[in-house]
Amino acid sequence: MATDTRSRDTRPPATEAAVSEDREFSFSTDDYAYLRAMLKEKTGIELGPTKQNMVYARLAKRLRKLGFKTFRDYIEFIGTPAGVDELGTTLNALTTNLTKFFRENHHFEHLGTAALQEVRARAVSQGRRLRIWSAGCSSGEEPHSIAITLLQSMPDIKQWDAKVLATDIDTEMVRRGSEGVYPAASQEGIPADIARKYFEPHGADKVRVTQDARSLITFKHLNLIGNWPMKGPFDAIFCRNVVIYFDKDTQRVLFERYANLLVPGGFLYIGHSENLFGITERFKLLGRNIHRKIA
Fold first, then answer.
1. Given 168, 176, 240, 292, which residue is catalytic?
2. What are the angstrom distances between the C-alpha of 13 and each of 30, 32, 295?
3. CATH entry, 105-293, from 3.40.50.2300, 3.40.50.300, 3.40.50.150, 3.40.50.11270
4. How confident is the model at residue 47 (pLDDT cuts 50, 70, 90)?
5. Average pLDDT for 79-89
6. In CATH, what class is 29-94?
7. Is 168 a catalytic residue?
């Protein structure tokens, strides 16, 4: 999937003109092409040709902080052994993180009713084990919403071996998610009784998800196109608004791997702008981007 480019220098040529002469930092079209190719190789995420201004905005602060004058200098730095840590920061900056609590709430409604009913039915013969994966968890709102849904829907959850795995390629997002601290305004749209029960004040204008919800979740750094150390099986996987950044071939591989990790009849929740048409035949659409594993 990812190719090895260590044997050749793919940095942009020094002759390419800058896109905009009035910018603080010179940023050529070849500079952008290099960063696009690097992101695709390292993460599988494919930026479109219209995202150059976004990349400039996200990385300009790093150039400013480190004292570089051009993107070419910055690119050369992250390609050296001394720039390995900065390369991770670059990848973090270029991955998109936009989420909220109970986003696309119908998924959590389905999880708390139909999905958990089937989990309970399986428990009769297979034991009280529950596993859910939030793949591409960003800053943690999604897995915390999952945990709150479990607490609300399963009064006997302490009698279960219940765990939520939350993973993301962005190490800073993983750190923030594990802390469970958010602006107080992030509770907007959450029913008042849920907000009172599962969020507590945490300093000025901030709240923290309560310990009973946080204790259900394990946050881990994971590159979806790399090795997956977990074995599953999972009862449900949330992978929402993630695969839109991958090409079709990468999507096919990802959904094959998801299917392999789900229990028979397990559920897959994807984003409202995503679909599995022409990608995989291992899932059946139940409606509103809720899919069941059929093979």
1. 168
2. 7, 12, 49
3. 3.40.50.150
4. confident
5. 89
6. mainly alpha
7. yes
